[in-house]
Amino acid sequence: MPTKRAPKTTSSTANRFVKHKSKWVLVLVLSALGFWFWRADIQERPTQSKHAEHKTSTAAFSIFDTLPPAAGGQKKSEPQTGDEANPKKNLEQVSKQYCQYKSATQYPNNSRPIAEHPDQIYPNQAIEEHHAMRNRNGGSNRDYQITTTQSRVYLAAQESLVFSLRASDQTQQIQTINIERVLAHGLNFGTAKPAPEIALRMQDDGQLGDQVAADGLYTSVFSPAQTSFAQFAGTIRIEVQYRVQGQAGQVFFDVIYSPTVPAIWNGKIRENIEQGALVFHLPMTVQQAGRYIVNGRVDDAQGKPFAFLNFNGLLSQGNQDVILSVAGKLLRDQTPSFPLSLRDIDGYLLKEDVDPDRALIPRLVGLAHLSKSYSLKQFSDQEWDSEERQRYLSEFSKDVALARKALGEQAPELARSLPENICDWVR
């Protein structure tokens, strides 16, 4: 009599079960790993200040932006692995950190050598770019080199933009450009509000900002206040489509327009010597209260730029004075010849959580004020000081003292030969 057999599971059914189960296990494992990495990324990602994006475009900078990499804003030096075993190298490291910080912070944030801000020396010069001809459908045509200029990026109410285009071949021969379309349109980010759009004219005929006719430089002038952009606040893109020797190309010019004027200059600039510094008082009528950023440049009597001045503060409505100050020690160290020229003043009201992030003040282009003549001895030669600076110097000097002590224990003669001012040794 045949024995009963247990029901048999076919191999195909078992394989399907195993594959199905494995698939879901794999999905769960990958999901768990993805969640873990996402959490780790969130936890390790540095939190950025609301003002971080303004750091490179304004003079509202931290003093540590001016420091050499070694000082870098560390609150306490961290000797590198192995340096403690070599007291001389360790002393060199911590001494350089101390001396670099001390030197970089000897002037206040609002009065710096202009050499630290080379891009700010002549802010009203046209911006010029060179690149291969860009095709309309992507890519580039290296047979032709395109040169573009635009007078400015930020445009205040009643100001105009002058922009131009030139083409040359590989032998630097200027090429004729056939301008097919010039269209200015507003860019709206995160909003469905329609933006203005207008056609512009771009010619090489000695008009519309073009200085010389038929020289291969095609130029146009755009004045938003005289168009449908009069009340538009934000980025305006000018798209130029053209042809060179039958080849189609395009180029874009972007400007950020501010249609409102939050404050106006309203009087003659005054100057005084205050607390050992040369201080300029710039009268202003503030129509909208808030935080204002104002920048100015100072040249000596020979026209040599030497100082970059900054105001960063809160102003209330009404008549106010914006203070631009040249630190006494900066004057004593740079030894400029008098009289000094305060020139090219620009500024804006800083606006948070909106685009654009600023409302521009009408700029003062060129010479704004010519100073009196002074003797440099009338100014203070004292380094700038603050509670924060003293705290950092105290921490750095502790590291120097510990390193000198360690060197004295291992090489007492070398330690005794070092100057009292350690910065004289590391220079």
Strand content: 25-35%
Based on the coordinates given, report the CATH architecture of the largest domain.
Answer: Sandwich
Helix content: 10-25%
Question: Quick one: how many beta strands?
Answer: 19
Helix-strand blueprint:
Elements: H1 11-44, H2 87-104, E1 111-113, E2 127-134, E3 140-150, E4 154-156, E5 161-169, E6 174-175, E7 178-187, E8 197-199, E9 218-222, E10 234-244, E11 247-258, E12 263-265, E13 270-274, E14 277-286, E15 290-299, E16 305-315, E17 318-326, H3 328-334, E18 341-350, E19 358-370, H4 387-410, H5 412-417, H6 423-426
Parallel strand pairs: 4-11
Antiparallel strand pairs: 1-16, 2-3, 3-5, 5-6, 5-9, 7-8, 7-10, 10-11, 12-14, 13-14, 14-17, 15-16, 15-18, 18-19
Helix pairs in contact: 2-4
